[in-house]
Here is the input.
Amino acid sequence: MGVEFGVLIPTREVVMSGRPETGPLLAMAERAEAAGFDSVWIGDSLTARPRHEPLTLMSAVAARTRRVRLGTGVLLPALRNPVVLAHVVGTLDRVAEGRVILGVGIAADMPAIRKEFAAAGVPWERRVGRFLETLEICRALWSRDHVSFHGKHFTLDDVTMEPKPPRAGGPPIWIGGSGPTALREAARFDAWFPTGPSVEFFAEHFPRVQSAARAAGRVPDAVTGAAYLTLALDANAAAAQTRMDRFLETYYAAPAKVIKARQAGYAGPIEGCVEWIQRWIDAGARHIALRFAGGDQLAQVDEAATRLLPKLKRR
Here is the structure.
């Protein structure tokens, strides 16, 4: 299959800068579609990294676009009631006419995220079980009527949800994360969608995910390889690195060195970025979501579309 590229809409950044208006965010989604990108992504956080609620904003993006797919990068299902989540996503995918990708994560173990779970009334130690049961319930509600479910965390008796998504079984589910649980569960879903930490890590583990999927009886290439990459593009490598470090430290309230050890990013000239992203493609990534580290977001969308993407071997 050909390689597809997406753009992350900077909902966190605009909140941090005190400019949470949605008009510029919707304009960026429109620009990404016009520039030829294949997808638009929106992150999720209740309180740990305050930003716009992703599914609500995606509905507005769906109304302003026609072609690009719309993904959560990534949503935390454990923080949601599964029936409510299934209903919201089902309606959203109707609005988007089948363009939604549900990117999901288990949640990184950080103090701010533990506090977020506490604020939502969700026990931290139950997050993995809730994550798995929530996705199982959503898929069931999207697929059939009269769903009953009896798990460790949720119980349903004869529940039917309407409207169901336009695609049988609902939107594709992409598993984010690089930890043991994410790697183990990715083989059951539609894509593995890590943030890093490196192309070497991806090249080592993605074949294992594919092998696990085949061992479970799934068709070859049932699991798409995807990647979430952060870019700071500048002909001046030192300036690009400074912008990347400043962006990461502001975004995560942690030293840039710590974040770089967990997340894949490139800072420097376009030419070097072409070589770096090509390595991800050669390792099997077939959908790459780009996050731009600060700066003029619209200009970077255009620059990536005209100067970066055409130089990559996408097939």
Summary: The chain has one domain: 4-311. Residues 61 and 145 are 29 Å apart (CA to CA). The longest strand covers residues 224-233. The chain is about 45% helix and 15% strand.
